[in-house]
């Protein structure tokens, strides 16, 4: 970006809005109960109607589906359940004809254990592919001869990050499941393989990549035991494994070797355990790494206080949420670029988590969340069904869940007696990943119109009320509010340029989220837009607020902001009260020159 006295040059990715599709759950075209590529293609006009310009497809590649495609066995092949390469080419062509770009999911921290590389690697210590993965000798042997893992680190999906390979008598490293061995990025041949895969897809015409846990690819130098785990912690030692010593070198190399040769390509790295200072390095405008990262701090606001990771049903604190998001806005302003998201395929549903999914407030609070997120600086990511206000689900039996993380947590906490089954089922319903993965609700027919067969994961029972057909027929639906906020972003450059600040004095307010986006003189002169004001009442009670009409006269620093134009509101004019924000009411004002 630029200095204060010249107008900001806005890059296309900074005005993009991305829609994430989880192919397994989006639309099934052939009745086998599993979403597929032709299903996606048939629904592209729906996505285009929303007004987004880019789609991120969660993995579509050959995979044994231990982690639903995040365990890839062939990076150049389409998962047979999803269709063929021709189906993909058709999808890409249709998307492009509708003005939609396609980003693929690049999952290269690990492969599947069924990838040919790993089959070779585990066949003998001398195999040329051995060094594609990370192998270690045991720390020793127990009295009964059991090999002891090289360290005590806990993985995301199973007790240890180490799995013993009987045949070659060494452990291999896996930060995720035992079927997701970590690739060895120290090996230049591995990096070349990855760059070749990227070129393969870019040459086919894809428009970008979302890079799975990309900040875990550079492994730490110190593989010593983790003291917190030794003292009883049961969570992944993220500080040790994230942002390793060669990470920036690797990303700059990837950029030099591949990305820089494809102008206009979009990139976002998924990066658990990044601070804003790290993010400024990953996304810094002059650093040539990635355009943006998915940070996780706001996903941790409602983490378990008992040390059970995500497994809890505690509500978040708005004060804490505001402080996190505001820090990210502030720290990346002019230095790097934010991604903005409330949910994805790994998170519970936004309206259930941050809003109120009761019949009374579901629609209002879903619309509020759209305005609050899209009003910030960054590139917004909408997760399929979010635009319908889809909600969390409750299944009364662990067997009805699919996600390996949920089943792993069940073994870890319920089978061990630490959490009782009823409580754990509530925790899963509040925070488990399958909340995001129930099929998209297209209409009120059987299985919500997702499939004519039996869906691989049950449909959320609220589908007769919450579905795309009903939303499209209702001009007051969540869908049209998303369409409006997306259109507003595209129409008004200030969404990209304005500097963010919470409205002074509201930081500690437990119900009100209020912020201003202020253009520099140069950006105001160039666009005619001076400021945005976003007001949102995150509560079931009315909120009295003098500035509710966009009247900021009591703030000296905003004295010049006059005659606000109400750009977005989630209550109709007849239901708006002066000086009061109704429950879950949000307003977004624009101040022009
Ligand atoms: O997620 C990585 C990650 O850090 C988490 O959000 C994680 O999945 C888990 O939910 C932590 O509790 C990425 C993918 O988005 C996820 O679907 C995969 O399972 C994971 O990597 C492994 O590829
Ligand atoms: Ca199918």
* Structural shape: globular
SSE-based structural type: alpha/beta
Q: Which ligands, by name, code or SMILES, are bound?
A: 1-O-alpha-D-glucopyranosyl-D-fructose, calcium ion
Major sheet summary line: 8 strands, parallel
Read across the widest sheet, the strand sequence of neighbours is 13-12-11-5-2-1-15-14
Distance between the termini: 22 Å
Helicity range: 25-40%
Q: From the alpha carbons, calculate the radius of gyration and give it in angstroms.
A: 24 Å
DSSP strand (E) fraction? 15-25%
What is the tally of helical segments? 18
Strand tally is 22
- Overall mean pLDDT stands at 97
Low-confidence stretches: none
Account of the 3D structure:
There is one protein chain. 28% of the residues lie in helices and 15% in strands. By secondary structure, it is an alpha/beta fold. The protein is globular, with a radius of gyration of 24 Å. Strands 13-12-11-5-2-1-15-14 form an 8-stranded parallel β-sheet, covered by helices on one side. Strands 16-17-18-22-20 form a 5-stranded antiparallel β-sheet. The protein contains 18 helices and 22 strands. The chain has helices at 37-50, 85-97, 116-121, 188-204, 227-230, 238-241, 247-257, 276-283, 318-332, 350-353, 362-374, 404-414, 421-431, 434-437, 468-473, 478-491, 494-497, 521-527; strands at 18-21, 54-57, 61-62, 74-78, 101-106, 135-136, 140-141, 147-148, 162-165, 170-173, 208-211, 266-270, 292-294, 339-341, 379-383, 499-502, 512-518, 529-537, 543-544, 565-569, 580-581, 586-592. The site of 1-O-alpha-D-glucopyranosyl-D-fructose has 14 residues, from loops.
């Amino acid at each position: 970006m630029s200095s204060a006295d010249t107008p900001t040059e806005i890059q296309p990715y900074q005005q993009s809005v991305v829609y994430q599709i989880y192919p397994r759950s989006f639309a099934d075209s052939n009745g086998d109960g599993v979403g597929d590529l032709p299903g996606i293609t048939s629904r592209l006009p729906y996505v285009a109607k929303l007004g987004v310009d880019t789609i991120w497809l969660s993995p579509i590649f050959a995979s044994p589906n231990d982690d639903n495609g995040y365990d890839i066995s062939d990076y150049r092949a389409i998962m047979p359940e999803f269709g063929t390469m021709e189906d993909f080419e058709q999808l890409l062509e249709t998307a492009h004809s509708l003005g939609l770009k396609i980003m693929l999911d690049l999952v290269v921290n690990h492969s599947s254990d069924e990838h040919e590389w790993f089959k070779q690697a585990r066949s003998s210590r001398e195999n040329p592919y051995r060094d594609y993965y990370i192998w270690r000798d045991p720390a020793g042997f127990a009295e009964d001869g059991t090999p002891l893992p090289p360290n005590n680190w806990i993985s995301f999906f199973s007790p240890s990050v180490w799995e013993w390979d009987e045949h070659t008598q060494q452990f291999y490293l896996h930060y995720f499941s035992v079927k997701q061995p970590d690739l060895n990025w120290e090996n230049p041949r591995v990096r070349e393989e990855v760059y070749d895969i990227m070129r393969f897809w870019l040459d086919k015409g894809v428009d970008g990549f979302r890079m799975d846990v990309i900040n875990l690819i550079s492994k730490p130098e110190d593989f010593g035991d983790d003291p917190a785990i030794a003292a009883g912690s049961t969570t992944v030692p993220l500080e040790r494994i994230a942002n390793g010593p060669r990470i920036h070198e690797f990303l700059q190399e990837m950029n030099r070797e591949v990305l820089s040769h494809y102008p206009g390509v979009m990139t976002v790295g998924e990066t658990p355990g990044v601070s804003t200072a790290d993010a400024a390095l990953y996304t810094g405008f002059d650093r040539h790494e990635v355009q943006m990262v998915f940070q996780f701090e706001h996903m941790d606001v409602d983490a378990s206080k008992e040390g059970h990771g995500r497994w809890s049903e505690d509500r978040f604190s708005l004060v804490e949420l505001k402080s996190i998001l505001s820090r990210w806005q502030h720290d990346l302003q002019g230095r790097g670029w934010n991604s903005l998201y409330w949910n994805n395929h790994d998170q519970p549903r936004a309206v259930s988590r941050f809003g109120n999914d009761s019949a009374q407030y579901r629609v209002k609070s879903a619309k509020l969340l759209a305005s609050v997120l899209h009003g910030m600086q960054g590139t917004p990511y909408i997760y399929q069904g979010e635009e319908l206000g889809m909600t969390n689900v409750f299944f009364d039996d662990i067997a009805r869940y699919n996600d390996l993380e949920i089943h792993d947590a069940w073994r870890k906490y319920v089978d061990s007696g630490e959490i009782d089954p009823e409580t754990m089922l509530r925790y899963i319903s509040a925070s488990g990943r399958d909340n995001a993965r129930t099929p998209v609700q297209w209409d009120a027919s059987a299985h919500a119109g997702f499939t004519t067969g039996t869906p691989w994961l049950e449909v959320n029972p609220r589908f007769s009320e919450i579905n795309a057909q009903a939303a499209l027929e209702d001009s007051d639906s969540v869908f049209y509010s998303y369409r409006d906020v997306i259109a507003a972003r595209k129409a008004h450059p200030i969404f990209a340029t304005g500097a963010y600040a919470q409205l002074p004095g509201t930081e500690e307010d437990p119900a009100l989220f209020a912020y201003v986006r202020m253009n520099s003189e140069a950006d105001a002169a160039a666009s005619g837009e001076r400021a945005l004001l976003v007001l949102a009442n995150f509560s079931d009670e009315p909120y009295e607020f003098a500035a509710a009409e966009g009247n900021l006269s009591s703030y000296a620093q905003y004295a010049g902001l006059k005659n606000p134009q109400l750009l977005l509101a989630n209550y109709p004019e007849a239901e708006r009260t002066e000086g009061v924000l109704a429950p879950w009411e949000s307003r977004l004002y624009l101040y022009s020159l």
